[in-house]
Amino acid sequence: MNIKAMIVGIAMAAAVAAPFVTMAQEGGPVVDIGYRHGNLRNAQENIVQAWQLVSDAQIDNDDRLGGHAARAKALLTQADEELRLAADVSNRNHW
Predict the structure, then answer these.
(1) What backbone torsions phi and psi does residue 26 show, to the nearest 5 degrees?
(2) For the chain, which has fewer Cβ within 10 Å, the N-terminal or C-terminal residue?
(3) Rounded CA separation 15/39 (Å)
(4) How many other CB atoms are found less than 10 A from the CB of residue 76?
(5) What is the separation of C-alpha 83 from the centre of its chain, rounded to a whole number of angstroms?
(6) pLDDT by residue (tens digit) across 26-39?
(7) Residue 48: closest CA among 27, 65, 64
(8) Which residue, 92, 80, 90, is CA-closest to 41?
(9) What is the domain partition of the chain in residue ranges?
């Protein structure tokens, strides 16, 4: 592998990972289920997207949504964690 290809690969990986790192720093949901559990992973991806859209709505509305957006984000984070637990159970039971 030449240096140019390696640099391009690293740059692409960083670009893909950046939104998830940002959300993890903010305490938001992350996609951490592998492709083995495709439906659970897709659900996690949708949760991450929904969480980001709620964050955007908070910004657009100067965070004046009566606390409901923050509560929705907390519930999305909880749902993300439950999906991770479901994948873990499946892995332990070899399903």
Answers:
(1) -85, -5
(2) N
(3) 24
(4) 21
(5) 11
(6) 789 999 999 999 99
(7) 27
(8) 80
(9) 3-92
Which two structure tokens, joined as six digits, stand for 4?
A: 């140019």
Of 48, 69, 66, give the one whose Cα is nearest residue 58.
69
pTM above 0.90, yes or no: no
Q: Reply yes or no on whether the pLDDT at 17 is more than 90.
A: no
Query: Is 52 in contact with 23 (CB distance < 8 Å)?
Result: yes
Residue whose tokens read 């749902």: 79
11 CB-contact burial (10 Å; exposed 0-12 / middle 13-18 / buried 19+): exposed
d(CA 54, CA 72): 8
Write the single-letter amino acid at 86: A
Residue 36 is given by DSSP the state G
